[in-house]
Design a protein that fits this description.
This protein is 56% helix and 10% strand. The protein is α/β, with parallel strands linked by helices. Strand 1 and strand 2 form a beta hairpin. It starts with 17 loop residues before the first helix and ends in a 9-residue tail after the last helix. The N terminus is likely disordered.
Length: 675
């Protein structure tokens, strides 16, 4: 993790160093408040069972069911809501956790805590096997693989005598009991809500574990690790160029979701002390998915709200009364049962509230807040808006204060006498098509090297070879003395090479600032434990990243729109945002693939000013571009490609006046006296 360095601020910017500290305090207060409120609600939820009254048994069992569903839904939300991997196997892991913890206690004889840990480890191991075998698939194929797991688990439980096919688990015939003994730890017995007059002490660890899971999930979602999941959900290509090892990260999140699904099953075992195979049918998996979607996938509180609502509906009399109404007034043969009504609720949620309860409410609230916070004085906002349209103006004005970018030292062992980037004999074949043929290229630090050529010349293919998207057929790519030939995009990114795309790849539902924060190296390098536990160093680093993100937004002229959603930006500003995100990784080389595509002439001029300012800061830029006026203005060296080969190289004036180059673009020889 690189350290962000800044130039000493002037007197006008004296308060700037205090901002990270204020961000740390604000984040810490928010986390403490969330934990206090969560534990407070948990205490209120189990207060009815404090005296063990018989009337509270059903209430405590309802709360336990809600807790188990919440934990499982939180895990699934990391897959469905953030990573956009639709898993239909969460109910299978729920069942594995429940039965494995019971089996390891009763039949193997492990101490209860070890049995629980063993069950969670088994869920993680099975999740890892499923993930490794299916994570290269997406969409329906991945969903079907996970569905097969859930169906397989259901059949094993319903057809295997060892799992209580006839009388549940445990059963009297095999265990001389139909109920598991309550867990005892350090002399404290955690009794389930089963017998009147006995306090359901197991509810205390159940709600504590549930709250801790919510806190951990919130920490992950708000961390760079969570940003990497959102990046994968947006585009695996984008995530890789942000330094994320996509394959490993998907395996990690699937294993985490599997463990949380198993933990939900463990809670059921401890709360009810008896398991029935029919409880863990395919309908359970659908219910967990519905809890995530109904509450709001991709939100922190969505799984909690959805789980509570769905469990309450299923165990209340509302759905049963609706079923009875259908039988009495419509048909006593053709009617929707409770499961059918839940299915209808699922469909209505997808159509009417695709963001779920929490997501829809959050979106409405954000709209209201933005409108109420808007400056009513249009005249005062015009000046700031015009400044935002011209990032070069902002760059010039802010350079003296804090816009200088401190370049990192050259990698140890690199030969500084050589070019920063050197390509030798690079070729790429797609079957019988030779897209790039024996290309050589050298780029020095603080230089803008433009790649031009007609459509189909191989420019974008060359950019993809440089950044690891494609594996070269032959040739080498060397960066700062390090061989990057054939390296995956996340390795290229971590080596100090950033890129932008022909079409801006952004998190459109996230804020402008969040998009830049995703560009930091932390997105690909933060370990899961640091994201989940959030040690003090994580608070400081998050504050530093936020301050640096704001500085980069000022650099590209977007500082006044940092809290807007990226989708609300005009196209030109989305280009600037993508450049700011690329800068966040602290690169030494930036590859820009047609950055002026779709821009107006005035926007292209502003873009040129920004790229020139980056060159002055010491960045090396490789710019793939069609706009010759922009190339002529900014480039130090120009390489023209045609049919995958080098056609011409030199200064902009030399290349753009070359007859072969003109012929390649116009399709006819250059005539004297024409332009």
């Amino acid at each position: 993790m690189s350290t962000i360095e800044k130039s000493p601020p002037t007197s006008a910017a004296a308060p700037e160093p205090q901002r990270p500290r204020s961000h740390v305090r604000s984040a810490l207060r928010g986390d403490i408040l969330f934990a206090v409120v969560a534990f407070g609600i948990a205490v209120l939820a189990i207060l009815p069972g404090r005296d063990g009254a018989g009337t509270s048994i059903s209430t405590m069992q309802l709360v336990a069911s809600m807790a188990a569903m919440t934990v499982a839904a939180v895990g699934l939300n990391l897959l469905v809501g953030y990573t956009k991997l639709v898993s239909l196997g969460q109910g299978g892991f729920y069942a594995i956790g429940a039965y494995a913890s019971a089996y390891l206690t009763l039949d193997v004889g492990l101490p209860p805590l070890l049995a629980i840990l063993g069950a969670l480890a088994l869920c993680g191991a099975i999740g890892a096997v499923v993930a490794v075998s299916s994570m290269r698939l997406r969409g329906p194929q991945f969903a079907v693989i996970t569905l097969v797991l859930a169906v397989l688990v259901e059949r094993i439980l319903n057809e295997g005598n060892a799992f209580g096919r006839l009388a549940g688990y445990p059963n009297y015939a095999e265990h001389d009991t139909t109920s598991m003994e309550p867990v005892s730890v350090f002399g404290i017995t955690f009794r389930p809500p089963m017998i009147a007059g006995e306090v359901a002490t197991v509810m205390v660890p159940i709600v504590v574990v549930t709250v801790l899971v919510l806190i951990i999930a919130r920490n992950i979602a708000k961390s760079p690790w969570g940003s990497s999941l959102s990046a994968i959900g947006e585009s695996e290509m984008l995530a890789a160029h942000l330094g994320v090892n996509v394959f490993r990260r998907k395996i990690s999140v699937f294993v985490l979701a599997s463990v949380l699904g198993g933990l939900g099953g463990v809670i059921v075992t401890q709360a009810f002390a008896h398991l029935q195979p029919e409880t863990f049918d395919i309908y359970l998996t659908i219910t967990i998915v519905l809890a995530v979607v109904f509450g709001g996938s991709g939100t922190i509180l969505g799984p909690l709200v959805g789980a509570v609502a769905i469990v309450w509906l299923e165990q209340s009399d509302i759905l049963a009364e609706i079923g009875s109404f259908q039988q009495e007034n419509i048909s006593d043969t053709w009617y929707l049962s409770t499961s059918g009504l839940v299915g209808v609720l699922f469909i209505l949620t997808l159509f009417l509230m695709p963001r779920g309860i929490v997501g829809t409410a959050g979106q409405l609230l954000a709209t209201v807040v933005r409108k109420s916070a808007a400056d009513p004085d249009a005249a005062s906002t015009e000046g700031s808006a015009s400044t935002a349209d011209h990032p070069a103006v902002t760059t010039t004005a802010s350079t003296d204060q804090h816009a200088r970018v401190e370049r990192p030292p050259v990698a140890a062992g690199a030969d500084t006498s050589e070019s920063m980037l050197r390509i030798s004999g690079l070729s790429k074949n797609f079957g019988g098509l030779r897209a790039v043929a024996e290309m050589d290229l050298a780029v020095d630090g603080g230089q803008i090297h433009a790649i031009i050529g007609p459509n189909g010349a191989g420019k974008s293919t060359l950019a993809n070879l440089l950044t690891g998207v494609y594996q070269p057929t032959e040739g080498t790519v060397t960066f700062l003395g390090r061989d990057l030939t054939g390296q995956a995009p996340h390795h290229v990114s971590r080596a100090g090479v950033a890129r932008t795309f022909q079409t801006p790849q952004l998190f459109h539902d996230a804020t402008v600032r969040a998009n830049v924060l995703a560009g930091f190296a932390d997105t690909g390098r933060t370990p899961l434990w640091a994201a989940a536990l959030k040690p003090p160093g994580r608070y400081r680093r998050d504050a530093e990243m936020r301050a640096e993100a704001d500085r980069l937004l000022d650099l590209v002229g977007l500082g006044d729109v940092a809290d807007l959603r990226a989708s609300e930006l005009p196209y030109g500003k989305q280009r600037y945002l993508e450049i700011a995100r690329a800068l966040a990784s602290d690169p030494q080389l930036i590859v820009l693939d047609e950055p002026a595509a779709g821009l107006l002439a005035t926007e292209s001029v502003v873009l040129g000013d920004l790229l020139l300012s980056l060159r002055e800061e010491g960045f090396a830029l490789v710019v793939v571009e069609h706009h010759m006026d922009l190339v002529a203005r900014i480039a130090d060296q120009v390489t023209c490609m045609d049919q995958g080969r080098l056609l011409a190289r030199g200064t902009p004036a030399e290349v753009l006046s070359d007859e072969a180059v003109v012929a390649a673009y116009l399709g006819k020889p250059h005539e004297e006296g024409t332009h």
